[in-house]
């Protein structure tokens, strides 16, 4: 884990909210922080100090490149002081970042991957999709949002299948509707999304005998396993999302005892 003061090198355009109520818009922001970028793996996260807040905020790592840049793709909440502050940074501004943190997705070794993203869950999965494409693995990305949204990254080399609540693009309905059909051909499944999506997945016969890794998004305090503010119940006892996760096996988590994610 490194602690750096990183300059902003680019910002993306504001995009419409993807899923949850209370989100004003979503956006990308890129920092130059080679010390963190070179060590980052899909599924890991960074803690960003947003303004004068006492505690830094966790953000999934969305992309990294060979030049040492690290991109975040994040939701800006209508009443979120931290995300509002981050969205207002300009190119050249410097921000304190800690990372990379947590245990990410296991490196895919199978040749047929199924990636399932619900709303802002696309943030960590895009990094994984990039790696799969580079390794010439077959990757299908199921991407569900509330409305049509221009995807922020390059999806070349990835089979992208969309679902929207209003039917504005792709399947009309939930992204989970698409899972049974596409799980048949997958050797390994990776997912990131809201709690209802995970609860639905945990009950699906189509996923029962497949390795399924999920990335949890929870409120964190320190991000380093010290404060115990992000503990969850699993079949093997209490686990800290920031330190033991954020990636877990789908069937290890006691979903009925997990609060809102």
In short:
The protein is built from six helices and 16 strands. It has 261 residues and is α/β, with parallel strands linked by helices. The protein folds into two domains: 2-101, Beta Barrel (Elongation Factor Tu (Ef-tu), domain 3), CATH 2.40.30.10; 112-257, Nucleotide-binding domain of ferredoxin-NADP reductase (FNR) module (Rossmann fold), CATH 3.40.50.80.
Give a written overview of the molecule.
The chain is an alpha/beta fold and 261 residues long. It folds into two domains: 2-101, Translation factors (Elongation Factor Tu (Ef-tu), domain 3), CATH 2.40.30; 112-257, 3-Layer(aba) Sandwich (Rossmann fold). Helices cover 16% and strands 34% of the residues. The chain is built from six helices and 16 strands. The strands form three sheets. Strands 4-3-7-1-2-6-5 form a seven-stranded antiparallel beta sheet. A hairpin with a 4-residue loop joins strand 5 (63-64) and strand 6. The longest helix is centred in the middle third of the chain and has 13 residues, at 122-134. The radius of gyration is 17 Å and the shape is globular. The chain starts with a strand and ends in a 12-residue tail after the last strand. The relative contact order is 0.15. The model has no long low-confidence stretch (mean pLDDT 91).
């Amino acid at each position: 884990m490194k602690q750096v003061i990183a300059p902003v090198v680019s910002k993306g355009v504001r995009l419409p909210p993807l899923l949850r109520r209370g989100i004003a818009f979503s956006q990308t922001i890129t920092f130059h922080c080679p010390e963190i970028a070179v060590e980052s793996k899909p599924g890991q996260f960074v803690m960003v100090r947003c303004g004068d807040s006492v505690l830094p905020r966790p953000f999934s790592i969305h992309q990294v490149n060979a030049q040492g840049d690290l991109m975040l793709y994040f939701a800006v909440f209508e009443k979120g002081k931290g995300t509002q502050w981050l969205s207002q940074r300009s190119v050249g501004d410097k921000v304190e970042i800690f990372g990379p943190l947590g245990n990410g997705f296991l490196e895919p070794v199978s040749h047929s991957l199924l990636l399932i993203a619900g709303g802002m869950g696309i943030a960590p999965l895009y990094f994984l999709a990039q790696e799969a494409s580079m390794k010439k693995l077959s990757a299908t990305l199921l991407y569900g949002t509330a409305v049509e949204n221009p995807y922020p990254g390059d999806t070349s080399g990835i089979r992208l299948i969309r679902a929207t609540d209003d039917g504005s693009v792709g399947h009309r309905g939930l992204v989970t509707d698409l899972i049974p059909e596409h799980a048949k051909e997958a050797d390994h499944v990776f997912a990131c999304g809201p709690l209802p999506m995970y609860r639905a997945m945990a009950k699906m016969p189509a996923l029962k005998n497949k390795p399924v890794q999920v990335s949890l998004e929870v409120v964190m305090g320190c991000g380093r396993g010290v404060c115990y503010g992000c503990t969850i119940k699993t079949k093997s006892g209490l686990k800290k999302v920031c330190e033991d996760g954020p990636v877990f096996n789908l069937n290890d988590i006691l979903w009925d005892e997990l609060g809102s994610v």
